[in-house]
């Protein structure tokens, strides 16, 4: 049995806001991509020396898509570049998990730079997070 909901004899369809992003049609003048980064979660940092840095993306999706062909996808596909303590190397995070997880950091002050990058690795901006990894007494773990 098929049921169709009618209001005054007219079919009712889901309404999509005009500004809603779609993966099927390019959107002109999309709002700028935004990245929000929080401080590491305190408990894992204090108890295990593990930095779990939550982040949230707006107006772009974090996807493992690279190259010039990915620039026409809407909403935008991007990935993150992550670097630690001004070291000359970095890595790309394209998983979109909502957190950067760092283990094995030595006790002391650290700085993590998390940047938004296009599928062609052009950096659009980023956020810096500074924190201290405490000395952990492994006999109490």
Structure at a glance:
The chain has 141 residues and is mainly beta.
Fold topology:
Layout: E1 6-7, E2 10-11, E3 34-37, H1 42-48, E4 51-58, E5 61-62, E6 77-84, E7 91-93, E8 99-102, E9 108-117, E10 123-133
Parallel strand pairs: 5-6
Antiparallel strand pairs: 1-2, 3-4, 4-8, 6-7, 6-9, 9-10
- Give the radius of gyration: 21 Å
Give, in order, the helices and strands: EEEHEEEEEEE
What overall geometry do the principal axes of the alpha carbons give?
elongated
Number of strands: 10
How many helix segments? 1
Content-based structural category: mainly beta
Major sheet description: 5 strands, mixed
Helix fraction bin: under 10%
Distance between the termini: 60 Å
Kindly report the average pLDDT value: 82
Low-pLDDT regions: 1-7
Strand content: 35-45%
Can you describe what's shown?
There is one protein chain. It is built from one helix and ten strands, in the order βββαβββββββ. The chain has one helix at residues 42-48; strands at residues 6-7, 10-11, 34-37, 51-58, 61-62, 77-84, 91-93, 99-102, 108-117, 123-133. Strands 5, 6, 7, 9 and 10 form a five-stranded mixed sheet that branches. A three-stranded antiparallel sheet has the order 3-4-8, with helices on one face. A two-stranded antiparallel ribbon has the order 1-2. The model is unreliable at 1-7 (pLDDT under 50).
């Amino acid at each position: 049995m098929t049921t169709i909901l009618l209001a005054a004899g007219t079919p009712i369809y889901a309404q999509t806001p005009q500004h809603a992003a779609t993966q099927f049609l390019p959107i002109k003048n999309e709002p700028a991509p935004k990245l929000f980064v929080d401080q590491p979660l305190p408990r894992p940092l204090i108890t295990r020396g593990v930095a779990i840095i939550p982040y949230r993306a707006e107006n772009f999706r974090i996807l493992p898509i690279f190259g010039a062909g990915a620039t026409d996808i809407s909403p935008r596909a991007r990935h993150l570049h992550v670097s630690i303590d001004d070291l000359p190397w970095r890595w790309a995070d394209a998983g979109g998990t909502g957190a950067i997880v760092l283990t094995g950091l030595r006790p002391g002050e650290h700085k993590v730079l998390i940047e938004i990058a296009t599928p062609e690795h052009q950096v659009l901006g980023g956020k810096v997070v500074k924190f201290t990894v405490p000395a952990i007494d492994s006999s109490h773990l």
